[in-house]
Amino acid sequence: MSASFAPAVTTSALSSRGAVSRDRHALGKTRARGHARARSRAEPLTVAMAANEAKIKVIGCGGGGGNAVNRMVNSGLRGVEFWSLNTDAQALVQSAADNRLQIGKGVTRGLGAGGNAEIGEAAAKESRDAIAQAVKGADLVFVTAGMGGGTGSGSAPLVAKLSKEAGNLTVGVVTLPFTFEGRRRQAAAMESVALLRQNVDTLIVIPNDRLLDVVEDDAPLQEAFLLADDVLRQGVQGISDIITVSGLVNIDFADVRAVMKNSGTAMLGVGVAQGKNRAEEAAMAAISAPLIEQSIDRATGIVFNITGGTDLTLQEINAVSEVVTSLADPDANVIFGSVVDEKYNGEIQVTIIATGFASASSVANEQMMNPNKSARPEQGGGGGAGGDGGGFPWQRRGSPFGR
After folding, report:
1. Pairing relationship of beta strands 333-340 and 264-274 according to DSSP bridges
2. Hey, where are the domains in the chain?
3. Residues 275-310: pLDDT tens digits?
4. Which H or E run contains 304?
């Protein structure tokens, strides 16, 4: 991704009700350089902030996690150290990650785990020291995997455990299998999710069945799996961008830690909109997205990221914040950031991670038992592919698949 940023100005990124606090002295200097007149609603915001230097690692476990890492690398996700971890030596050769770790050489002899999580776990235990070195020296570690297989399901819990033991904020971002993948794979996924939950600070569980709500009926099978990989990317990028990318509003890593440390299950929502009311519509699309299984007013913490082009305005940032905070619990810890990316000129993307829900196992079980049930707010302007372009990026006709 390429981005255009203004000179850095000291500002505060925290807001309990969506207003952005600005340093008057610094803004005075900015005005003295030619910005003396007041901004109109149509004028772009030019305040930027310096990037934080938190060390972030993404570790893709198994085939699903490795595919997600490839998606992140190819999308140009910045400021992140990528690792691909697998028992399958051939899969690692094809990985786009700079760092590749083959585990369980004595267990699998370079082959996969054959869909057996016990073999994946044994492989991880054999390579425990190497994994501990991989997670060392980070502030935030994302552990991503597709649950239900062998290597990902078996290794992810141990990777997360070693990351937490190293003192890292550890976030799991995993998918549950499509129903058509069979009951055995679903049951194995549930077991692995329960184990992973015990070893992460925050767990984002993405049921692949929900993705069927946002793809065309005639979409090929490969597109559905690519979509699952891209949603994993969205979850990671929504958090990492507001920490690592110099943007309009950045937040301290300490603030992210405060919201996500030991926060339990989290929900992910992404919304994109164009047109006159794009800020409000993108916010509602994110809140009403198919992956938001519960109302955000039940969340104890919310992190949201606003991405727009150089035409993104302060008023639009405030409008998004007002929508989110008006629906959140008044006592919830809400933090946000905003990033400028030239690819988003003419549109706004809002990514929401709501934390502090019920246990991952209970939520995931409910998702398995009731794949069509949702506690999302049924409100206008969100989730659909019509209108001015609200909904997931891949929902909009004529738009490239994902980012």
Report:
1. unpaired
2. 56-200
3. 999 999 999 999 987 777 678 888 999 999 999 999
4. strand 301-308
